Amino acid sequence: MSVEINVTGEVVTAFLGGELDHHTAREMRETIDNAVELNMPTLLILDFKDVTFMDSSGIGLVMGRYKNLTKSGAELHITGAPPQIYKMLRLAGIEKLAKLEGR
Amino acid sequence: MQVNNKFSMTLMSRSANESFARACVSAFATQLDPTLEEISDIKTAVSEAVTNCIVHAYDNKPGNIYITAELLEDNSIRIKIRDRGCGIENVSRAMEPLYTTVGGERAGLGFAVMTSFMDKVKVISVPGKGTTVTMIKKISRRFNLNA
User: Fold this and answer.
1) Does A88 contact B55 at a Cβ distance shorter than 8 Å?
2) Which end of chain A is more exposed for a tag (fewer CB within 10 A), N or C?
3) What's the CATH architecture for A2-101?
4) Is B145 among the domain residues?
């Protein structure tokens, strides 16, 4: 499990990597939330390109970030999701909350 | 249905075992020559069921999780995941998408994911005694170039 944060102007991008489950979600969540709190972005991009596994804990992570961002009127985009992760995001109806890019 | 192969294991209800459990079951399932997508579906469903045992059945306290996987003669895998935790009062309600009894960031999608990614999901629960989730996934027989 890994999270790399990139800040460009008002955009924070979190590059997620490895396996995202109930066990690893907490640390990912804390890293992302710290970066958002520090940089106050207008757009948060979650990059799933290097995520090798995700269960519904990943959906909880996306929904939680969305809730936090809407408080400040910021937007959430999701990019790079491999087919299996895209399947999970669609099952949860995430496209209603966040823009799904790169497919 | 004839059982061609079987394995069982007992795990402590620790979140670090979520990845271990899904890796074990999916490694066993490779004997049926599944596609990457089928393997990923099995991994995800097992992960959901085991997480439910840890978060709900045992409420993050110590307990045992019992997993049995069987390879059946029709090229399917039957996976049983059982706990001796708190049980579920209303199974059909628990299986509704987005329904969750805990706060934090649980999406309430565990059973919806299992149902969607597996061919059959059966849940038997006795409040105060525990829950057994039985899931079946049929693995497609792929064209064999050497046949």
Assistant:
1) no
2) C
3) 2-Layer Sandwich (3.30)
4) no
**Which residues does chain A have within 8 Å of residue B116's beta carbon, measured at their own beta carbons?**
91
Here the ipTM equals 0.92
Task: Output phi, psi for B27, to 5 deg.
Answer: -65, -40
Alpha helices by DSSP H, chain B: 17-29, 36-52, 91-94, 110-117
* Of B19, B37, B104, Cβ closest to residue A21: B19
Residue B14, domain extent: 3-138
In a domain, B40, yes or no: yes
Indicate the residue of A55, A63, A84 with minimum beta-carbon distance to B48.
A55
The model's pTM:
0.94
Would you call B113 and A21 a contact, using CB atoms and an 8 Å cutoff? no
Position B142 pLDDT exceeds 80:
no
Question: At B56, phi and psi to the nearest 5?
Answer: -100, -60
pLDDT at B143 over 70: no
pLDDT band with cut points at 50, 70 and 90 for residue B147: very low
Point out the residues of B that are catalytic. 48, 52, 106
The domain that holds B53 is classified in CATH as 3.30.565.10
Domain assignment present for residue B108? The answer is: yes
DSSP string, chain A: -EEEEEEETTEEEEEEEEEESHHHHHHHHHHHHHHHHHH--SEEEEEEEEEEEE-HHHHHHHHHHHHHHHHTT-EEEEE---HHHHHHHHHTTGGGTSEEE--
How much is the CA Rg of chain A, to the nearest whole Å? 12
